[in-house]
Amino acid sequence: MGSKYYDALGNLYPFPRSFMFNNFLPLDELHRMLILLYLPEAVTEEKRWNIKSEYALSLKKYMGMWPRECQNPTYGYADHYKKYILMGSGVPLPDSSHIRIFNVVGRAFGVLADCAYVVDFKNNVEFCVTAMIY
What we know:
about 20% helix; two-stranded antiparallel sheet; alpha+beta
C-alpha cells in the first residue's frame, strides 16, 4: 500500500508497505459474519454458527453499547465514538433515540472500516451495511 512508509521506529522505506504478515479479513467475509450473528434466518441452517445463545447475546450487547452504557471499563467518549455509520458527522443521537447501531470498526494504515447492523425500533427498519474508506 502506498509508495513508501515509516515503520514503528521512524525508519523510512522507499517502497510500498506489504501486509503479508498482518491479520486480514476480507470485507465481504466480515459482512457475512455480521449477518450470521444478527440475521441467521437469512442463511441456510447448515451455514449458521453453532454458538451458545449466551455468547451470542453477550457479543450483541457489547457491539450495540454506547460508550456511556459501558460500566467496566468506563469511557469518557461521546456516543458517536466508533459509530461511524449514521453518526460519522460527530452529531450524537439523543438519549431517547429509537435507533441502535450494533457494529465493529477497524482503523489502521489509513483505512477505516465499519460493519454495522442498524435498527430503527420506532419505524421497524433494520439493515446491515459494511463500508471501508481509504
